[in-house]
Amino acid sequence: xxxxxxxxxxxxxxxxxxxxxxxxxxxxxxxxxxxxxxxxxxxxxxxxxxxxxxxxxxxxxxxxxxxxxxxxxxxxxxxxxxxxxxxxxxxxxxxxxxxxxxxxxxxxxx
Length: 110
Description:
It is globular, with a radius of gyration of 14 Å. It has strands spanning 3-6, 10-17, 20-27, 29-36, 42-50, 53-64, 67-79, 85-94, 97-106. It is 0% helix and 75% strand.
């Protein structure tokens, strides 16, 4: 289960990664935030409002058997009009090229 909360100045996302949980807290004013990334590296991110969407642009440098690699990730989050569905368009820019995917989440009552 992914837990997402937002107040007027921050977006917080808690997600399970294996036996652990990673929490990322993003400032929504465009300032940089730093947290542990899902691949074990340090993630630096900036989030801002663009109309009704929250846009987060981040980069994470990870160690691989072939040396260090920096991933650039752009996430565009938007809610449906009824607030029950969140769509996230994720574009990852890697040395092997860009990959875009769309994720859809349904709101679960707590």
